[in-house]
Amino acid sequence: MFDLIPEDDFGRVLAEFHRVLRPSGRLVIATLARTRRLIYRLWESLYRVDPSWVGGCRGVEMTDAVQRAGFSIERCEAVTQLAMVTEALRAIKS
Question: Considering the entire predicted model, what is its pTM?
Answer without folding.
Answer: 0.85
